[in-house]
User: Fold this.
Amino acid sequence: MAFDTFPAVVTHIRMVTPTVLCLGFRRQDGQLLDFKPGHFVNVHFQDEDGETHRSYSVANPPGEDHFEIAVAPVEDGRATRYLFGLKEGDQVDISGPYGRFVLREENHDRYVLVGTGTGITPYRAMLPQLAQRMQNSQARVEVLIGVRSREEFLFAEDFLAAAQATPGVELHARYSRQLPGQPHAWESQGYVQGLFEGMELDPERDIVYLCGNPNMIDEAVAWLKARGFPVKRIRREKYLSANA
Assistant:
């Protein structure tokens, strides 16, 4: 498959957890990246094994003068070696945006956004658009985050700020390995899909977005379908690790 790439410059680099890297880019031609929240881009690079690319969700809302991705390291991964070696000012080849994991025009009573690891990044991009929709409706948004520990909750400050600033937005974080000694009310231990049991999910009124670990997504889809959720009310995007 041929890709129409464009050059972008690395604008900033920061660690958003002890292991996850956030990279910011700006198109070299100065134009804004025309994307919708939930879209992804491909990062193209060449190493000793040849040309390849990796896909990453855009992690910030549209309209900013840059776009961001979050990169979780993969042991011996080609993209890990390349992306973790970048410096500010480096030029990178990008293609996109792509994807169908976006907010569609229809409105719903409740948006349930479920993500694990870096799979929460599209929701960071979606929050402003959802907040705008909520101004003209009684919709609610519940963000369900699944990571191993509090330290691995990337962009936590942004999700907390959205929950505090926007009535109707609720945050729930599930930690599969370690619960803090003094957890907040929105923190609990277990797997993120385990939160479904107490939510009274309604297949007639709610829509569920699932992004991240394929096992989580498969289990969540099976649970939702068993309770009457039609396919059109389940949106999913699996994150598959690649080191080839």
Remarks:
- Residues 5-98 form a domain with the Elongation Factor Tu (Ef-tu); domain 3 fold (CATH 2.40.30.10).
- The helical segments are 78-83, 121-134, 156-165, 214-226.
- The mean pLDDT is 94.
- The CA atoms of residues 8 and 92 lie 5 Å apart.
